[in-house]
Design a protein that fits this description.
The structure is a single chain. The chain is of the alpha+beta class and 127 residues long. It has a 5-stranded antiparallel beta sheet. β4 and β5 form a beta hairpin. The N and C termini lie far apart (56 Å).
């Protein structure tokens, strides 16, 4: 019986490199390097999308941080666009009791008001 299990384990091949896999019966990779390489390749498309969206969100946050050094200010949509702000992406939306809708990129947010002006704020919440 022990010989049978040993033979069965030796016949298993690493999903990444094809080398024999030894150890637990449910083991699929010969080492951590092969496991990581396999999983990175499987998730490459999703990782690139997430990486690109996160990059846009960080850029939006940096733009608002520079335009709003005093934690509350005002600017125009045109200035934000000129600096590369992408209004498509934000991390959260907050609607006040009065019905004003703020769009946030992490702790920095903006409120569109009349004539394409934007009120900029910094949320003081700590998680």
């Amino acid at each position: 019986m022990l010989t049978h299990n040993k033979i069965k384990m030796e016949n298993r091949a690493c999903l990444e490199c094809g080398n024999p896999v030894f150890g637990r019966i449910d083991k699929k990779f010969c080492d951590d390097q092969c496991r990581n390489a396999y999983n990175n390749r499987q998730n490459a498309d999703a990782n690139n999308y997430v990486r690109n969206v996160h990059s846009i969100l960080r850029k939006n946050r940096r733009i608002m941080e520079k335009l709003n050094p005093n934690e509350k200010g005002k600017t125009t949509k045109a200035i934000m666009l000129k600096k590369g702000f992408d209004f498509t992406y934000h991390t959260s939306i907050y609607t006040t009791k009065a019905g004003a809708t703020y769009f946030f990129c992490y702790e920095y947010g903006y409120l569109p008001i009349e004539n394409d002006y934007m009120v900029l704020v910094k949320r003081k919440e700590h998680f």
